[in-house]
């Protein structure tokens, strides 16, 4: 065998090896669809129980505008929040009424109001601080229910299948803003009634330079066991 023939064989063998290793790597790695997801900013708001609606307004809530999640609406009514250190007027109310009153604020709001609200998923209010709500007709002393809503993505089962992720998965999302930011630990919530949208709070939005129309891309699963935003 002459030198050229040996070289040719080597190139062929090495080429095959590289292709094999690449194929193995790709097999073991979950692929994420990188179609952009609309990112919406949730400003501070309250969800009210029917009883608290009656106490505060003396009548049912009035829808003002539909929100992205089907059946959810912004109300004409507004509420005032009173904490140990501060007051916030003109706080939005989202309808329809729920089983329990829940107030969702940012960490900045929490400081201004003087309540130590933890980051929680909606509905998980056990052991959270309370706050006072007032409106024209009355006052509600909420014993607990003040949270900083954890960032999350709403998805239909079809969306989840498309993106290759499941309910309660935690993912990393890169926000395509002027001040781009990768957000870890974004909870995926799958429900047939959900429309595709990621929700962040005002602090997160301002931190990333959010504006209307911004989108995010799922980079991979989040968490120590997956490495840093693994793909
Ligand atoms: Zn949401």
Describe the structure.
The chain is built from 5 helices and 15 strands. The chain is α/β, with parallel strands linked by helices and 231 residues long. It folds into 2 domains: 43-148, no CATH class; 151-226, Barwin-like endoglucanases, CATH 2.40.40. The longest helix has 26 residues, at 3-28. The protein binds zinc ion.
Provide a brief overview of the structure.
The protein has helices at 3-28, 50-57, 107-113, 157-163, 202-208; strands at residues 37-42, 45-47, 63-66, 73-82, 87-95, 102-104, 119-120, 131-135, 138-142, 146-149, 152-155, 170-175, 181-190, 197-201, 215-221. It is an alpha/beta fold. Strand 8 (131-135) and strand 9 form a beta hairpin.
List strands and helices in order, with pairings.
Elements: H1 3-28, E1 37-42, E2 45-47, H2 50-57, E3 63-66, E4 73-82, E5 87-95, E6 102-104, H3 107-113, E7 119-120, E8 131-135, E9 138-142, E10 146-149, E11 152-155, H4 157-163, E12 170-175, E13 181-190, E14 197-201, H5 202-208, E15 215-221
Parallel strand pairs: 1-14, 2-5, 6-10, 7-10, 11-13
Antiparallel strand pairs: 1-15, 2-6, 3-4, 4-5, 4-8, 8-9, 11-14, 12-13, 12-15
The structure holds zinc ion.
